[in-house]
Amino acid sequence: MAVTEKELQEILEQYPSKVQKNRKKHILIKDAAQMPQVIEANTRTIPGIITNRGCAYAGCKGVVLGPLKDMVHITHGPIGCAYYTWATRRNKAKSEESAQNFINYSFSTDMQESDIVFGGEKKLAKVIDEVVDIFHPKAITVSATCPVGLIGDDLGAVSRAAEARHGIPVLAFSCEGYKGVSQSAGHHIANNILMDRVIGASDLEEAAGKYPINILGEYNIGGDSWEIERILKEIGYTIISVMTGDGSYEELRNAHVAELNLVQCHRSINYIAEMLETKYGTPWLKVNFIGVNGTAESLRNMAVYFGDPALIEKTEAVISRELARIEPLMEQYKKICEGKTAFCFVGGSRGHHYQGLFAELGIETILAGYEFAHRDDYEGRQVIPTIKLDADTKNIPDLHVSADERRFRLKLSPEKMEELKQKIPLSYYAGMNIEMKDGSIIADDLNHFETEEFIKILKPDIFASGIKDKYVVQKMGIPAKQLHSYDYSGPYAGFNGAVNFARDVSMGFASPTWNYIVPPWQDEPLLTGTVNEE
Ligand code: CFM
Ligand code: HCA
After folding, report:
1. Which 3 state secondary structure label does DSSP give 187?
2. Which residue is closest in CA terms to ligand 2's atom 10?
């Protein structure tokens, strides 16, 4: 099933003309002949439209800071904001018996009407004092919600005074929900302050183990990071820090000693990847540990980067052993999944990352999109291959490309790019538009109206999205899989994750439940018009 230009136009025509003009720029039918196809992204949602997007506070406190387990994260605002970011994302964390872990707590100033009228600064200072008294954390974060910005509470001043009182870092994040156009603004705010105050703050000069790496943009949803770490540790990597899944303040302080930064979710953390490269010269490599092929390819690229024959050999050994183990299982699920179609709409990277895993099961993604990604996530980005710098000159050996040129990778001439491509494997960041099949739909900031319209036309076999639209679509008779929280399941990353995903998706297809639901299009006409009796 595909959507024709005419059908797309019919959906859009139901909007007032101004909205129609706007939404048209956010939806594409993939056509390789027209590449590069431009899509509008990272712009404000039209008021009144039901979007799936979150806010800057959700992106800062909920996404990037929340998983750091040994810090107390205080929400300065009404209780609903703290509640919304309390464990629903399923970012798991565990600690040794003696280490601090506040992951199960939700801390909030519980702002009331009187605080809005008279100001909430005193209340915030009191909450910080109570937190220090009761929990003795190493560090605290304070995140702003919408009303804080509106009434002008000075989070920075309160936090600085608390730092002086207690002698621990109290980091203030001005991530008022309304900032920017989505949670993406919050990622950036969190990235900047973590880089400024935490990352690289320790005196450590060298990593204790071989092949030291950081894993950026991996949040341990449903245990993903634990599966990725299992594989990497077995190959012989030393994981300095994970940002920020099951991560900690202590680990982040050592992040500067890593020799390579892996970037799993590019959208939420590319700012830190870039800043680490500028400040410490640590290159970054885009990886994708979702899907069997994605995982194997990422492992191979990492091994090439370090270039050690023993590491390359061990990588291949682990890959072959894992493949031999999981392939029969994947094959068994493939029998159920083969030939099916998926609708895949998630935040800022999963809408793309999961397509490979679907394809491995024989499922074609016919519509995909991001809630809040930027244009480079759709259109791809030219990234210079990640390669180790010469220790003395800090240049790339034999390639006449200086560290600075590599840093400002987009400024390289096409000739130099070509020269690089010929000599070393290319680690570019291919966007969604490049990889999807012709005829498929690519939609940015899809809303609930459009979701229902596309579902009616495409009738996909599985709907992969989030909590906000899952149930509407399930009631239309289509199995839904949450790709944010994994619906209480996981991990879905790495080799074991691929099998878990295959099992869950197959269960969705095999369940007899769907036969009891009559989708609306079975007893309602899709198109209205008069029938010619002749
Ligand atoms: Fe990155 Fe994420 Fe995502 Fe994201 Fe998110 Fe998430 Fe997501 Mo929900 S950091 S962009 S802001 S991969 S919380 S773990 S699932 S929307 S696609
Ligand atoms: C967020 C978090 C979220 C929401 C998930 C959903 C997550 O955007 O604030 O809408 O189902 O992954 O928990 O993206």
Report:
1. helix
2. 466
The residue whose CB lies within 8 Å of the most ligand 2 atoms, and thus the one to mutate among 89, 175, 354, is 89
CA 381 to chain centre: 17
Q: What is the dihedral of CA 364, 369, 373, 377, to 10 degrees?
A: 40
Strands 441-444 and 27-29: antiparallel
3-state SS string over 115-177? HHHHCCHHHHHHHHHHHHHHHCCCEEEEEECHHHHHHCCCHHHHHHHHHHHHCCCEEEECCCC
- Judged against a pLDDT cut of 90, whether residue 388 lies above it is answered with no
Residue range 144-159: mean pLDDT, rounded: 97
Show Cβ contacts of residue 519 under 8 Å, excluding neighbours closer than 6 positions: 459, 476, 477, 478
Q: Which residues form ligand 2's pocket by a CB distance below 6 Å?
A: 52, 54, 58, 62, 88-89, 183, 347, 466-468, 482, 484-485
pLDDT at 194 over 90: yes
- Among 327, 198, 348, CA closest to 265: 348
pLDDT of residue 411: 42
Identify the three-state secondary structure at position 244.
strand
Catalytic residues: 55, 58, 89, 187
Output the pLDDT for position 392. 59
Nearest CA to ligand 1 atom 15: 484
How far is Cα 201 from Cα 256, in angstroms, rounded to an integer?
Answer: 8
Complete DSSP assignment for 305-337 = HH--HHHHHHHHHHHHHHHHHHHHHHHHHHHHH
- Rounded CA-CA distance 331/179 in Å is 47
| CA trace torsion 222, 224, 225, 226 (10° rounding) | 80
